[in-house]
């Protein structure tokens, strides 16, 4: 198994891409720290599923935009497993609103959830990874983020994900000599079951392949970046957008 003996922490792993990612990493041999904020039932269900694979799990409720909760998340993970080898900064949120109609509260929520959480969790993971001279940090951007492409009604989300891209590259440069690789995956529009029919209709026209991405398609790329097969890759952003942004 590619990840036998490794411990992976996936933020926002109760549903969607995070859920599929946790399963993929577990199938590859990793023990999993499952993080959720409100979806307790789904997190527990995922934990039981992973345990049936023979992997160990830990389920922790934490709002990863809050420094004290992030500190506790990693404290509990390290108490249970002794380490966190792989961090997947998956948690995120998304709304479709023009700048004109976006409130400060909505703007702040998008930035904190998609960008600040990456800073907080990465910072918490670094001491242990530096000590062991090995680590994998995998962040989530967007398929078109490195093209500097713009679209109406998603300025808040695009701003946050562009920040994640630069944070990824900067952190990769800082940690490259510490045995830590930092990369990002740029999903296109993913059908995670949370979009309304109106949102689906509006967004489907942006997909050159004529369909949304499936969560498991994103999870497979994350697994690659977490595995020894990507040892020589750091500071990269891999778009998984089905042609979006070409």
Radius of gyration: 17 Å
- What coarse outline follows from CA principal-axis ratios? globular
Percentage of helical residues?
Answer: 40-55%
Q: What fold name goes in the CATH topology slot?
A: Rossmann fold
The largest sheet is: 7 strands, parallel
Helix and strand composition category: alpha/beta
Oligomer: single chain
Q: Supply the number of helical segments.
A: 7
Q: What's the number of extended β-strand segments?
A: 7
Poorly predicted tracts of residues: none
Gap between N and C termini: 35 Å
The first-level CATH class is given as: Alpha Beta
Output the helix-strand order: EHEHEHEHEHEHHE
CATH superfamily: NAD(P)-binding Rossmann-like Domain
How would you describe what is shown here?
The model has no long low-confidence stretch (mean pLDDT 95). Strands 3-2-1-4-5-6-7 form a seven-stranded parallel sheet, sandwiched between helices. The protein has 246 residues and is an alpha/beta fold. 44% of the residues lie in helices and 15% in strands. It is globular, with a radius of gyration of 17 Å. It contains seven helices and seven strands, in the order E-H-E-H-E-H-E-H-E-H-E-H-H-E. It has one domain (7-240): NAD(P)-binding Rossmann-like Domain (Rossmann fold, 3-Layer(aba) Sandwich), CATH 3.40.50.720. Helix 1 runs parallel beside helix 2 (40-51), helix 1 crosses helix 7 (215-226) and helix 4 (104-132) runs parallel beside helix 5. Strand 4 (86-89), helix 4 and strand 5 (135-140) form a beta-alpha-beta unit.
């Amino acid at each position: 198994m590619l990840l036998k003996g490794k411990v992976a922490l996936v933020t926002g792993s109760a549903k969607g891409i995070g859920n599929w990612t946790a399963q993929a990493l577990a199938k590859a041999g990793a023990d999993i720290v499952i993080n959720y904020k409100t979806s307790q039932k789904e997190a527990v269900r995922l934990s039981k599923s992973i345990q049936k694979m023979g992997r160990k799990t830990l389920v922790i409720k934490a709002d990863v935009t809050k420094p004290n909760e992030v500190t506790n998340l990693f404290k509990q993970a390290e108490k249970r497993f002794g380490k966190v080898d792989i961090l997947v900064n998956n948690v995120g949120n998304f709304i479709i609103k023009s700048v004109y109609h976006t409130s400060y509260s909505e703007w702040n929520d998008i930035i904190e959830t998609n960008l600040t959480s990456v800073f907080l969790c990465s910072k918490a993971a670094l001491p242990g990874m530096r000590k062991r001279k090995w680590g994998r940090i995998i962040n989530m951007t967007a398929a078109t983020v490195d093209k500097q492409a713009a679209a109406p009604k998603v300025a808040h989300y695009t701003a946050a994900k562009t920040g994640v891209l630069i944070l990824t590259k900067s952190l990769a440069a800082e940690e490259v000599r510490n045995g830590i690789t930092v990369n990002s995956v740029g999903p296109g529009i993913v059908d995670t079951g949370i979009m309304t029919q109106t949102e689906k209709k509006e967004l489907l026209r942006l997909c050159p392949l004529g369909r949304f991405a499936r969560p498991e398609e994103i999870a497979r790329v994350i697994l690659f970046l977490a595995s020894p097969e990507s040892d020589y890759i750091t500071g990269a952003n891999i778009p998984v957008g089905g042609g979006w942004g070409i």
